[in-house]
Design goal:
Shape: elongated
CATH topology of the largest domain: Rossmann fold
CATH class of the largest domain: Alpha Beta
Structural class: alpha/beta
Strand order of the largest sheet: 14-13-12-11-10-9-16
CATH architecture of the largest domain: 3-Layer(aba) Sandwich
Distance between the termini: 23 Å
Length: 688
């Protein structure tokens, strides 16, 4: 038995992912022999695609719409006979298969799912709820399962578990636990899979024969998606298609693979031939979600009686040892940014409204209607200014109550000043530029810094003197004008500790951007330009700001001929936002996050890009990912938590989380990053 930890690094099974498949075979009614051959072909197809679990439709060996033919002994016997042949003929394949057939037991006929792998039948799961209304007449043939009974049937001189309360655990894949329900079981008020999930099942397989009718497909999608989300599970749903009887019904072969509420793949409905779809599910994520959502455990306690008598059956599965098995559906390169234009617009509007409402509430509570904002002409301060303008408009106050200050230092670019002037003039706010160099020079002289003596020393003190002076000006201006300082720092900067302690990019009276990542911030400003203004000059300037290289503008460009680049120091925000999301939202280990990043970023065509993305397409090899992930871990886990422990109030805007100690993230300020850095050593430098 191969353990997943012994698999190669670039193998998806090594990282807690599991590849599943939904098969929709062409059905030959009352012809188990031909059906078995069709099923075998699809199993071989699944194996060629490195699938670990394949699910077939309800009664797939016999056909679902056999009606009174189910009372024929020949059909019952031949279905079981072909199951045995199918098990024997696939014995050397590293895959778990689930097929449907009628099974006779104690003078009753049951609509069953058979689960088998590597030459062994592991269990028979009968259907719990038998529909007998409208077009369904299943009670004419089948008996419902007794959910309180798990017994054993003798098949080929082996005792086979028989019952609806069975969970099949794959011993060498931790946390992969499979439960089965059949068609109507999903449509009842409390599906059997609800109790199976509480009993530990992470993957639900549903063998279905749901017929086609107008509007039914979307309802099916909702059922599957909602059940997977509620159960914090994956849901693999297969349905009967071409070949079933069209005497009174039609069949669309609607199959789906759903991972925690997200349908990752779906069959083509009304296909005229057999088809197979595959999808990778994230078992580790499901378990992490269950750990975090404490109400899941509370439900386990509440329904302890219903889940205590589940029978646990172990399966040892041979695993694909290929050196490289990438994810079929790589993670989104921009997990904070919706893919489609419509979804992205909806997200941006929602985020913006949360920010505006938060600021409005703080203005009303403090009674301070004047707002102070340091506007550098960069992305974050621009967006904060847009939030402030909208909040003031909603309160029906004058935009002149917004006091925007451009605090120019030793490295401020003319382009930034132009951006400042355009923003303040076109938005109609109070704008003033203050040259902070004289006060900075005084501070540098007081410190005895070499720059004050004419030496080109651009160290951290030189940078932070400017940052500190900007903050000092803003807070003292707020004192003079009975105003509130609106902070601009974003989630990505706070994660990487890219903020000078106690100054403007770290401290304010109220932050509006603190839970907005940089990758989403770019879309927010672009969205505002497209939807909130008809001013073409303002719109053009906003779009230029979005595309401008991010810089703190603290070290003069003439020092080395290059503009000071934030991303050259702390890493590309697009990649660091990816790391931030998966390390904090799900708690994944660094070597797993690196594998996910590699799947998403190593090829120009890999991953999923939002439509009309603002980002230039980049690629990152595993060595680059490892390098920037190491920097992220050092800065996030060891070097900057003390800054996050005392940040100002700010509204949480999304499920991606915030880093406020009063919100999603609580961590000690003096922890070490050794544990995570040790995991970095497990990441190879090249693809082998």
């Amino acid at each position: 038995m191969i353990d997943i930890n012994s698999l190669p690094y670039f193998n998806l099974y090594h990282h807690g992912f599991f590849r599943t498949a939904v098969a929709t075979p062409r059905v030959y009614l009352a012809d188990p022999k031909t059906n078995s051959k069709e099923i075998k072909t699809l199993i071989l197809n699944a194996v060629s695609q490195k699938v670990g679990l394949v699910v077939f439709p309800e009664l797939s060996l016999s056909g679902y719409s056999c009606d009174d033919l189910f009372h024929q002994q020949s059909l019952i016997e031949e279905s079981l006979n072909q199951l045995n042949i199918l098990i024997a003929e696939t014995a050397d394949l590293p895959i778990i298969s689930v097929v449907g057939l009628p099974i006779k037991n104690n003078n009753k006929l049951f609509n069953c799912a058979a689960i088998f792998s590597q030459g062994k039948l592991f269990g028979l799961v009968p259907k719990t709820y038998i529909p007998n209304n409208r077009e369904f007449y299943e009670a004419r043939y089948f008996t419902p399962a007794d959910p309180n009974v798990v017994e054993y049937l003798s098949i080929n001189n082996q005792d086979i578990p028989f019952g609806s309360k069975i969970i099949f655990s794959v011993k060498n894949i931790p946390d992969l636990k499979i439960a089965i329900e059949i068609c109507e079981d999903l449509w009842v008020p409390i599906p059997p899979s609800s109790f199976a999930a509480l009993a530990g099942a992470t993957v639900i397989a549903n063998l279905s024969a749901s017929n086609a009718s107008v509007g039914k497909a979307e309802y099916r999608r909702q059922l599957v998606s909602n059940q997977a989300a509620r159960c914090l599970s994956a849901y693999v749903y297969s349905a009967a298609g071409v070949g079933e009887s069209t005497t009174d019904l039609a069949w669309d072969g609607h199959g789906m693979i759903c991972d925690y509420g997200l349908i990752v793949n779906e069959t083509k409905r009304y296909a005229l031939e057999s088809q197979l779809i595959t999808g990778d599910i994230d078992i580790q994520r499901l378990v992490q979600e269950r750990i975090r959502q404490n109400t899941f455990a509370q439900s386990q306690d509440q329904f302890s009686v219903e889940i205590e008598n589940f029978n646990k059956i172990n399966i040892a599965l041979s695993l694909y040892g290929d050196s490289v098995i990438e994810l079929i559906n790589p993670p989104l390169r921009f997990p904070y940014v919706p893919q489609t234009v419509m979804d992205r617009s909806t997200r941006c509007q929602e985020v913006f409204e949360i920010q505006v409402q938060g600021l409005i509430s703080r203005i009303r509570f403090t009674g301070l209607s004047n707002l102070i904002i340091g506007v550098s002409g960069g992305l974050d301060s621009t967006h904060a200014l847009l939030v402030a303008v909208t909040a003031i408009d909603r309160l029906q106050l004058s935009r002149k109550s917004i006091k925007a200050y451009g605090l120019t230092g030793f490295a401020t670019r003319e382009k930034s000043i132009d951006f400042f002037n355009t923003l303040t003039n076109q938005l109609g706010v109070s704008g003033e530029i203050i040259d902070i160099r004289p006060s900075c020079m005084q501070m540098l002289k007081d410190l005895g810094h070499p720059f004050a003596e004419g030496q080109p020393v651009f160290d951290i003190t030189f940078e932070n003197v400017q940052a500190g002076e900007r903050s000092n000006h803003l807070f003292r201006l707020a004192n003079m004008q009975q105003a509130m300082v609106v902070g601009t720092s974003d989630l990505s900067e706070l994660a990487l500790g890219w903020a000078t302690y106690g100054v403007g990019d770290h401290m304010a009276h109220y932050h509006v951007n603190a839970s907005v990542p940089k990758s989403l911030m770019q879309h927010l400003v672009d969205w505002w330009a497209d939807h909130a203004t008809d001013n073409e000059k303002l719109k053009l300037t906003l779009k230029k700001i979005v595309q401008t290289e991010i810089s703190p503008e603290l070290i003069p460009a003439e020092h080395n001929g290059q503009i000071q680049s934030t991303e050259k120091v702390i890493g590309p925000y697009e990649l660091q936002d990816f790391h931030l999301y998966y390390l904090t939202r799900f708690g994944f280990s660094p070597e797993r996050v690196a594998f996910m990043a590699w799947c998403a970023w190593h090829d120009i065509n890999s991953g999923k890009w939002p439509e009309l993305t603002l980002f230039e397409k980049h690629t990152y090899d595993i060595a680059s990912i490892k390098h920037w992930l190491t920097i992220f871990i050092k800065r996030f886990f060891e070097q900057s938590q003390y800054k996050r422990s005392c940040i100002a109030n700010s509204p949480k805007v999304g499920s991606g989380g915030s880093l406020s100690p009063r919100g999603d993230w609580r961590a000690p300020s003096d922890s070490k990053a050794t544990l995570w850095l040790d995991k970095i050593n497990l990441i190879p430098d090249t693809v082998k």
